[in-house]
Amino acid sequence: MILTSEMGNYNHSEALTRTVEQLSQPESLEGLFHRHTEGNPLPSGKVLGEIIELSRAIIFPGYFGKSSVNTHTIKFHIGANVEKLFKMLSDQIMAGLCFGCEVCPDTGGHCRERAKDIAARLIEKLPEIRRTLATDVEAAYNGDPAAVNSGEVISCYPVIKALANYRIAHELHLMGVPLIPRIMTEMAHSETGIDIHPGAKIGHHFTIDHGTGVVVGATCIIGNNVKLYQGVTLGAKSFPKDEDGNPIKGIARHPILEDNVIVYSNATILGRITIGEGCIVGANMWVTEDMEAGSRRIKN
């Protein structure tokens, strides 16, 4: 409690000035301050959210975006959305590329052209992304007896929203776009509770039942027809350090799940190990060694 006499002697202006000085000290900003190049702001979370919504509306017309789409208007709606998506993507990718540069003068507009090229290449990938997501919808529907139809799966199931974000972000990751892929998957993480790093490689007919608390690490490789349940972690062990004691990054440190694997709720699989084709990992299991194809790890 501050006494009245103390409050009377308190100089607000001096306190604010002193705080500004402390917050502006270079040593306090180390690693926390992003120096913007003139006219090149960071990617916008709000705009990237709009990009995700547009992408979902293009991939799943009628389920996201305008609900009044029909066979007569679908080409118009997709065309308008694609045109808008290209402009927004180009701007955000440009911001992402500039974020990845210490100095980004963009002489001659090379970064702007590169951003447009990447945006166009991503849009060209949307038919393929849709085909893969269609297999994910099929896997979710076939894997859940409570699912009434595929429309319910698309509209309601968090895994489809998370995978839509992931599959778009993964393509941008492969194209070398900084920051934006991670923002997109973290948006899905916030929305669904499913945390998939954009660097992970995931095959077709993939599904996650319920979804909350699932973690898929950056160097995971997941085959086809794989099913995870809520709370599953595909993570890394404590990774090695270099001679200076710094963590060694960029190494393969997460599990490989081959085709037709099922991992039940709250199981934890750690390290660069291989879970062979057709394996079953039971609920609450802790796995740090390879599993032979067709084997099971289940508590008695």
Share in helix: 40-55%
Q: Give the beta-strand count.
A: 14
Provide the residue-averaged pLDDT: 89
- Describe the strand arrangement of the main beta sheet, using strand numbers: 1-4-7-10-13
Structural class: alpha/beta
Verbal overview:
The protein has about 300 residues and is of the alpha/beta class. The protein has helices spanning about 5-10, 10-25, 25-30, 45-60, 75-100, 110-140, 150-155, 160-175, 180-190; strands spanning about 195, 200, 205-210, 215, 220, 225-230, 235, 255, 260-265, 270, 275, 280, 285, 295. The strands form 3 sheets. Strands 1-4-7-10-13 form a 5-stranded parallel beta sheet. Helix 4 (about 45-60) packs across helix 9, helix 5 (about 75-100) crosses helix 6 (about 110-140) and helix 6 (about 110-140) runs antiparallel to helix 8 (about 160-175). It starts with a helix and ends with a strand.
Give the SSE map.
Elements: H1 4-8, H2 12-23, H3 26-29, H4 45-59, H5 74-99, H6 110-142, H7 150-156, H8 158-174, H9 180-192, E1 195-196, E2 201-202, E3 207-209, E4 215-216, E5 221-222, E6 227-229, E7 233-235, E8 256-257, E9 262-263, E10 268-270, E11 274-275, E12 280-281, E13 286-287, E14 296-297
Parallel strand pairs: 1-4, 2-5, 3-6, 4-7, 5-8, 6-9, 7-10, 8-11, 9-12, 10-13, 12-14
Helix pairs in contact: 4-5, 4-9, 5-6, 6-8, 8-9
